[in-house]
């Protein structure tokens, strides 16, 4: 099959990215009817529908989803190639990551990055949702996982590690000589499967001594706050709470540190890999990681 007309591909890329004929038409400076015509031409050439047209929204069909990601990446690369050389002299780097990574590790370092790049505005957003780079105004994301996301370039930052921590006041009330003694205390977010992994590796038969229902919080930062207040034992990443451990406001009663096979990754669409702002942030992050002993 020959390559479809560029006008049709351009219309398809915009509609697939916005999932809206109206927004695609506005971006392209075309009428909505003209965009629809280009999509129909492409669908006829491919012999399959690309979008499911609903009352107030559209969605990609299976065929549409198959072609959308590489088409969006290709146009992203073209936009990057033909952009003005000075286009990055004043721009914004928008970063999305999970709250714990942002608050416990990234935020204290972002000021240094921005000072080293005074012409680059930096915006940090935190949420637990996966980013759709084609529809959201996000430059890069930092996420936990296996590092395999189709269409995205991923750079390994650090492994996800965790160990129990609690306040010294709570620890004084209990004789914590061995890991199984933790079962006498309230475990924060006790349903977290990582507790099972840590207990098993520490030699504790966790499931025969299942803890009572307790407090469940949405992020490690909230769990750390609850642990600081003496409400229970939190399963936390030592790298993220060095200050609390160093000052003694939290203690790590046992040396055992476990992993769950997941890591933190810097991710972005492959077509953006040469953007100056992303190159600078990538280099900065990897340098900070190399200087961080873990």
TrEMBL record:
Keyword Transcription: yes
Residue ranges crossing the lipid bilayer per the database entry: none
CDD domains the UniProt entry points to: PBP2_GcdR_TrpI_HvrB_AmpR_like
GO biological process: DNA-templated transcription
HTH lysR-type domain ranges (all copies): 4-61
UniProt key word Cell membrane: no
Pfam families in alphabetical order: HTH_1 (PF00126), LysR_substrate (PF03466)
Gene Ontology MF terms: DNA-binding transcription factor activity; sequence-specific DNA binding
SUPFAM superfamilies, alphabetized: Periplasmic binding protein-like II (SSF53850), Winged helix' DNA-binding domain (SSF46785)
Keywords for the protein's UniProt record, in alphabetical order: DNA-binding, Transcription, Transcription regulation
Family: Belongs to the LysR transcriptional regulatory family.
Protein name, UniProt field: LysR family transcriptional regulator
């Amino acid at each position: 099959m020959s390559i479809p007309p560029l006008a049709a591909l351009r219309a398809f890329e915009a509609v697939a990215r916005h999932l809206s004929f109206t927004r695609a038409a506005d971006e392209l400076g075309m009428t909505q009817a003209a965009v629809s015509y280009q999509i129909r031409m492409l669908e006829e050439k491919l012999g399959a529908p690309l979008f499911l047209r609903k009352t107030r929204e559209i969605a990609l069909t299976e065929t549409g989803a198959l072609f959308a990601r590489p088409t969006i990446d290709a146009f992203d690369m073209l936009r990057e190639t033909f952009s003005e050389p000075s286009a990055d002299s004043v721009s914004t780097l928008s970063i999305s990551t999970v709250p714990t990574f942002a608050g416990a590790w990234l935020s204290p370092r972002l000021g240094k990055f921005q000072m080293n790049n005074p012409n680059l505005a930096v915006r940090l957003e935190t949420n637990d949702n996966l980013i759709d780079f084609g529809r959201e105004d996000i430059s890069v994301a930092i996420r936990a996982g296996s590092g395999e996301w189709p269409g995205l370039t991923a750079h390994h930052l650090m492994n996800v590690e965790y160990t129990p921590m609690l306040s010294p006041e709570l620890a004084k009330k209990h004789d914590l000589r061995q890991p199984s003694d933790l079962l006498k205390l309230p475990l924060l977010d006790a349903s977290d499967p990582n507790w099972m992994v840590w207990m098993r590796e520490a030699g504790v038969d966790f499931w025969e001594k299942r803890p009572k229902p307790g407090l469940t919080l949405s992020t490690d930062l909230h769990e750390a706050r609850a642990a600081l207040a003496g409400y229970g034992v939190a399963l936390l990443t030592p790298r993220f709470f060095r200050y609390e451990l160093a000052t003694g406001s939290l203690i790590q009663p046992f040396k055992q540190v476990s992993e769950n096979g997941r890591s933190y990754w810097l991710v972005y669409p492959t077509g953006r890999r040469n953007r100056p702002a992303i190159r600078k942030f990538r280099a900065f992050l990897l340098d900070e990681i190399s200087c961080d002993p873990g």
